[in-house]
Specification:
By secondary structure, the protein is α+β, with helices and mostly antiparallel strands. Helix content is 26%, strand content 27%. Strands 1-7-3-4 form a 4-stranded antiparallel sheet, with no helix packed on it. The longest helix is centred in the middle third of the chain and has 29 residues, at 205-233. The termini are far apart.
């Protein structure tokens, strides 16, 4: 970031804004990279993806960037999707700093899983990136009315709930995971800085100059990171291998989740069958994403399935069917107008980690099976 005098000059003569725009133009090169799909539909989604990253980046690094006045907000949701975002999750995040102490006050609610972590770095920085502390609901001291407080600090308090930070901690991320989004209530959380007095100060040229640069770096870094992942998965299309936990942790993943990432690509008359016996675990789900690792539109299509809604075989095994039409069999996952993309299977606190098997079959074969089943 430029110093105070430089920032004033850069804002006054427009360099801050011009360089931000130039960096966004460079980010567009990711969409047109050699390993990316070159059809109009996927390219259009790629550029829309960049526009979504710009939106969340400006919120993260300008609107809600002050760790002295943190605001819990939603960085990923129905129209901002990043890195195989889980459709069962209600994500929240805030800018924080290891220079300060914070307090989270909450009402537990009934959501199935609640995890809160502190993290260093971001997708656009060359600095250390990873988790600096983590706590989940089952570890919290909660009173009889479901209320709790969590101290967020570098030094452990003498008593009570504590979420650790380190000196370079820069963000807080909340994952609230539903079994049943319709009937469960999220935890009601409030975050405040300990010792804060009065409203935050006015916007400064330094904050704007640095914020625009950080936002541009985030767009470039996030787009490049997950595009690289996707291109790597595509080398073994229609398989679903276990993902390296160390890489997941560096990308701010939940430490209790084991991820399986893969790439799928199907012709109109094909279906992908995924088979596995889910291990004993607190939660699992499977989802489809596009090439840019955005979850497909779960508002209008059944693109994911979790342990609560899945139909298991008599031996406890699971068969998922990925196809562009309903074959009339259990556990159909809708490709939602897509021919290709990434896919993710995850489970929380699993006792074992079986690798799913996958095979591509003609849809006609599944339709015939459905007819035979219906005729019994």
């Amino acid at each position: 970031m430029a110093n105070g005098d430089d920032s004033v000059g850069r804002v006054l003569d427009g360099r801050s804004w011009s360089e931000f725009c130039d960096a966004l133009k460079q980010a567009g090169e990711v969409v047109g990279s050699p390993g990316s799909p070159d059809d109009p539909f996927d390219r259009a989604e790629g550029y829309r993806y960049l526009s979504r990253l710009v939106r969340v980046a400006l919120e993260s690094y300008i609107e809600f960037a002050d760790p002295k006045a943190p605001v819990l907000r939603r960085p990923a949701h129905e129209t901002v999707k990043i890195g195989a975002d889980n459709p069962d999750n209600y994500y929240q995040s805030a800018a924080i700093s290891g220079e300060y102490d914070y307090l989270i006050r909450g009402q537990r609610g009934s959501v199935h899983y609640l995890g809160i972590g502190t993290y260093a770095g971001n997708y656009g920085s060359g600095e250390r990136r990873g988790q600096t502390g983590y706590i989940e609901a089952k570890d919290l001291e909660i009173d009889g009315e479901g209320r709790f407080e969590i101290r967020v600090s570098c030094q452990a308090p003498k008593s009570g709930n504590w979420l650790a930070m380190e000196r370079d901690t820069s963000s807080l991320i909340v994952r609230q995971t539903f079994e049943d989004r319709v009937n469960e209530e999220i935890a009601d959380l409030v975050l405040e800085r300990v010792g804060a007095e009065g409203p935050p100060g006015p916007l400064t040229p330094e904050a704007l100059d640095g914020g625009l640069a950080a936002a541009a770096a985030y767009v470039q870094g996030t787009a490049r990171l997950f595009c690289d992942w996707s291109e790597g998965f595509r080398e073994k299309t229609n398989t679903l291998p276990r993902f390296d936990p160390a890489i997941a942790q560096a990308a701010h993943g939940d430490p209790h989740i084991q991820y399986y990432h893969g790439y799928w690509e199907l012709a109109p008359d094909e279906a992908l069958v995924v088979e596995v016996t889910p291990p004993n675990c607190e939660y699992w789900n499977f989802q489809l994403n596009n090439h840019w690792m955005e979850s497909l539109d779960y508002r209008y299509h059944k693109i994911d399935l979790n342990h609560r809604g899945a139909a298991l075989e008599s031996d406890g095994s699971l068969r998922l069917i990925v196809a562009d039409r309903d074959p009339g069999l259990p556990n159909w996952i809708d490709t939602a107008f897509h021919r290709r993309g990434t896919m993710c299977l995850r489970w929380i606190r699993a006792e074992s980690h079986p690798t799913p098997s996958t095979r591509v079959v003609p849809i006609a074969e599944l339709l015939s099976e459905a007819e035979r089943t219906a005729g019994r």
